[in-house]
Amino acid sequence: MMRSATRWIVAMMVGILVNMGVLGAASAAMVGTQDALRADHRAEIDRVLSRDEVRQELLAHGVSEEMIDARLSAMTDQELAMMANEFDQLPAGAGVIEVVGIVFIVLLILELVGVTNIFSGF
Amino acid sequence: MAALLGGCAHLQPSAPPVSGAELVQTPFFPQSAYQCGPAALATVLVDSGAQTSPDRLVEQVWVEGRKGSLQPELLAATRRAGRLPIRIEPDTDALNAAVGAGYPTLVLLNLGVRWLPVWHYAVVIGRADDGWILRSGTTKRRWMPHADFTRAWKLADHWGFIVAHPAHVPDAVTTEQWVRAADDLANTGHADDGVIALEQAVRRWPNDKLAWFALGNARAARGDWPAAQVALERAVSLGPDWTPAVNNLVSTLLELGCPDRAAPLVGQLRASSADYARQTVREFEDYAGTARCQLTP
After folding, report:
1. Are B171 and B94 in contact (CB under 8 A)?
2. Would you list the DSSP string of A21-70?
3. Which residue in B11, B73, B116 is closest to A121 by CB distance?
4. What dotted CATH number matches B175-285?
C-alpha cells in the first residue's frame, strides 16, 4: 500500500521535473538513439523509479552502500527495470541455506534416478 | 554443499574430446566459494583484453543476500570494463558460431531441474563432436556431453553473451544489436568507447541510417557538434523521412549557429506531432543566437 502510494507520488514528481526540463538530456531537443527506436516517452520516469527500487533491493541483500551507485550507473533502463521487477525471481542460486539438507536429498535422488548429473564429480 | 546450492556448482570431471575447435588461449580463473559469476566474468573480460580479476569483480556483481550474481549485473559490469556485452541468439548454432569466431561465451546453466534449480555460470570455449568444452568452476577444461549441456542451457532459457571490444564488431552481430550495445556503453559513463564502437558501426554498415544517427548523437553528447553534424547529415540523406534524425540535425545546426541551414528541414518537423519536434520548432523560431555559422556552405 505504502509502497505503491510512494511510487505514484514519485512518478508524478518525476513527470513534472521531466516536463520542466529539469531532468533529461543536456541538449534539450535531441532525441536519444534508443528513444527513437521506441514509441513511449515514459523512459525517464521509469528509470528514476527503477533505480531507487534496485538500490533498496541491493542494500537489503547485503551490497555495501558505497558500491551501489557505480553498479546502478552501469545498468541500462531495461536492466534496471528487470532488476526492480524481478529481483527475487532472477536466477542467482537457491539462497535457502536452512533447507540445504532437504534440497541435498532431493537432488541426490534426482541424480540417482539419472535426471541430473551434478554429483558425479563429488 | 553450500557451493552447490549457491549459484554455482561443480561439474563432473571430464574426458578429453577427440576433435573440434577450442579457444585454448582463453584464461582460466578457478572460482572460490560459490563465486562462479565473478570468475566466469573475469574469464571473458580478460580474454577481451580488459584488465580485471575475479576479486575485483566481486564488488561489482556479487549479491551476498542471493549468494550469487544476477544476469543484468554481469552485463553492467562488462560495460564498466569498457566492453560491449552482446547477447547471443538462444540456440546452439549461435553458440557454435560465437565460439568459432573466437569469442568465449559466458552462459547460464541450470544443472538441477526446473522446480529445484542449481544455477551456474560457465564459459564455453569449444565444441567437440559430441559435447562442449567449458571453463567451469574449479576446472580449467570441462567437457560436457551435448545432451547434458543442451538440457542445462535450455533450463536457463539459453542465456549467454559474448564480450566485444569497441573497436571490433563481431561478424554475427546485427546493426541494431551493435548500435544498442554501443549506445548503452556511451550512456553509462563510457562516451569515448561508445563513439569508437559507433565509428566502427558506420564503417561496417556505411548505408545504415541508424548507425549514422547513433554516431551523431554520441558525438553531440560529447559536445563535438561539427562531427555530429556530419554524421546526422548522412543519416538524413539515407533516411529523409525519418523525423528523429531530421530533428537532431536541426538541433545540431542551431547549436552550430546555422539557422539558415536548418530552415529547409523545419517544415518536416512542423508536420510531426512528436513533442521533441514541436520543441525543436519552437527553438528554431525563438533562435536568437549571434554566433557565426561555423559550417562551410
Report:
1. no
2. TSSS-SSTTPPPTTTTT-S-S-HHHHHHHHHHHHHHHHHHTT--HHHHHH
3. B11
4. 1.25.40.10
What pLDDT, in 10s, does the model give residues B159-185?
999 999 999 999 989 999 999 999 999
pLDDT at A22: 47
CATH for B2-164?
3.90.70.10
Of A82, A92, A106, the CB nearest to B116: A106
Could you identify the residue written with the cell 519552437?
B282
The answer to which of A62-76, B86-100, B136-150, B198-212 has the lowest mean pLDDT is B136-150
Domain ranges in chain A are 2-90, 94-122
Nearest CB partner across the interface for B156, out of A33, A62, A91: A91
Touching check for A97 and chain B: CB below 8 Å?
Answer: yes
For residue B24, give how far its alpha carbon lies from the nearest alpha carbon of chain A (Å).
Answer: 23
Q: Average of pLDDT values for A61-80?
A: 94
pTM of the model: 0.85
**Boundaries of every domain in chain B:** 2-164, 175-285
pLDDT (average), residues B145-164: 95
The answer to whether A61 faces chain B, any CB pair under 8 Å, is yes
Per residue in B223-269, pLDDT (tens digit) is: 999 999 999 999 999 999 999 999 999 999 999 999 999 999 999 99
- Judged by CB atoms closer than 8 Å, whether chains meet at B71 and A90 is answered as yes
